[in-house]
Design a protein that fits this description.
The chain is mainly α. It contains 14 helices and no strands. The two termini are 44 Å apart.
């Protein structure tokens, strides 16, 4: 009687292999969490601890929130957080709407001008306009020094549309045909059939858009001249990388050190987007892989 030989990846892992995998996971976590620990510890440390540690604290001897108090009392970061939040929410809503509508229209086999429109969209994906033509277009549209300059130039991503389109093309045609027989129109089919079945890919693409809007600073750098309209990432670049002062301490000796304030700004910029990932964690693999390989 012949025995079935299973491939190596289907067999039960050996204890040595399990130990090596666990060690690799622990090392990866240490590499990822170590910088976060330094950033957090430095942001809640006083000047004496930072001086003794040489600039960055691994574990704080004393715990203080003076840096966060000074950051939000200055008004710059508070205003930037509000700007980034509004731009992210509005931009993600607009981007998801345009992406889903375009993906649904281009996923409908036999639709009017489907192939020419799909070719036109793919051409724009391969040949980008460049920074100078895009700046001139934003200027001619009167969007300079406007919040819309942070949203509209990046409101549509061809890559994300292709992912959503590939997912929608995997929806059984029988469901669409039965809905048409019952008298449903295209928008009814999109809202009641395509969107509920595409929740995974829509959640993932929404996360992609939200991360992109939250982390964007270059559009604000070239389109916004008014510093009161700066988003958080541009404030982070100006006051952390360039070392500018967030607020004027007025020679106050009790003010928190500059390193503590800078790390507080870094943490404020990182934490909100980190909290968004667990919300779509279960959709991440399914949404990206299924939308990428189908259609």
């Amino acid at each position: 009687m012949s025995t079935i030989v299973r491939p190596a990846w289907q067999g039960k892992p050996k204890p040595v292999a399990l130990a090596l995998k666990a060690l690799a996971v622990v090392l990866a976590l240490a590499v990822v969490l170590f910088p976060f620990l330094i950033v957090f510890s430095t942001s809640v440390s006083d000047s004496e601890s930072i001086t003794e540690a040489g600039g960055f604290v691994l574990w704080p001897d004393s715990f203080t929130l003076d840096a966060y108090t000074q950051v939000f009392e200055g008004g710059v970061v508070t205003r930037a957080v509000v700007v980034s939040t509004l731009v992210t929410l509005v931009g993600t809503a607009i981007s998801l709407t345009t992406t889903v509508l375009a993906a649904y229209a281009l996923s409908r086999r036999g639709a009017l001008f489907q192939r020419p429109l799909l070719t036109f969209v793919l051409v724009t994906f391969l040949f980008t306009p460049g920074m100078i033509p895009l700046y001139l277009a934003v200027k001619e549209l009167g969007l300079l020094d406007s919040y819309w300059a942070l949203v509209l130039p990046t409101a549509f991503s061809v890559f994300n549309m292709i992912v959503v389109r590939g997912f929608m093309m995997g929806i059984p045609q029988e469901l669409v045909d039965s809905a048409k027989i019952d008298g449903a129109g295209e928008f009814r089919i999109l809202w009641n059939i395509s969107l509920p079945l595409s929740r995974a890919v829509v959640a993932v693409v929404g996360l992609f858009y939200a991360v992109s809007y939250w982390n964007a600073f270059f559009n604000a750098l070239i389109y916004l001249n008014d510093s009161t309209k700066w988003p958080l990432q541009l404030v982070l670049r100006t006051y952390v990388l360039q070392g500018s002062a967030l607020v004027d301490s007025g020679g106050d000796q009790t003010a928190p050190p500059a390193q503590s304030v800078q790390m507080a700004v870094v943490l404020i910029a990182i934490v909100p987007i980190l909290l968004a990932y667990p919300l779509v964690q279960r959709h991440l693999t399914k949404g990206v892989l299924t939308g990428a390989v189908k259609g």
